[in-house]
Amino acid sequence: MARVIALIKANPAATSVAAGLFVLAMLVAILIGLPPPFMIALYVVFVVVAWRIYRWRMRGHDPRPATAPGGILATSTAVAFVIVALAAQAVPYGRSHSNPAITGEPQWANAETRALMVRACFDCHSNEVEWPWYSNVAPLSWAVTKHVDDGRNKVNYSEFDQPQRDADKSLEEVENGSMPPPYYTFGGVHSDAKLTPAEMTTLLEGLAATPGLSE
Ligand code: HEC
Known about the structure:
Elements: H1 2-10, H2 12-32, H3 36-57, H4 70-88, H5 111-120, H6 122-125, H7 140-154, H8 170-175, H9 182-185, H10 197-208
Helix pairs in contact: 2-3, 3-4, 5-10
The structure holds heme C.
């Protein structure tokens, strides 16, 4: 521990870069709705790999300088970034893009209600998920898979033959603006899911008139 503190004190530049990258990683996690533990794990692996590469490249320097040479530190960091980005693609989680059979749907009040729900909700709460191209690229694939897993877990509008524990919160979630989640439509992505005030009124009326979707 004392050694680590001494290292940090001797390398203010490297420490600020590491801290800056951590903040950046966490901001990206929030933006794409990736749960922090995933991003922290990725970051820790990255720091360890960068450190190992740096140590390896400094193997000839004896005694090792207290302050890391900037060039070697920068290239070690860059190489570690590439290695970890590639290795992340090999993680099995997030690769299966399932769409199980549709076994039952709510008795939609009308076709328009269903259409609006497909646009705004089915990418996370159905077995008709349109897996985007970036759902093949980690860590985005982890985020997308987590959203679909958690979303289906709460309510799956494609398996309405079975009890869906939070289905009756559908109206409320849309009304208070919690669903779809803010990250889903951030910066103009999934603009289809961004409903106009008129569409919103139609959807809320439709949800109220569909059995099981309000309390
Ligand atoms: C990007 C994926 C995504 C989209 C799109 C989405 N949801 Fe969700 N939904 C989730 C996730 C993830 C959860 C679980 C959230 C949690 O546990 O905090 C959830 C939870 C819910 C819940 C349960 C809430 C609770 O507190 O138990 C309801 C009801 C719901 N969503 C309805 C909807 C409706 C209706 C739409 C469309 C208007 C929608 N969702 C769109 C991902 C999504």
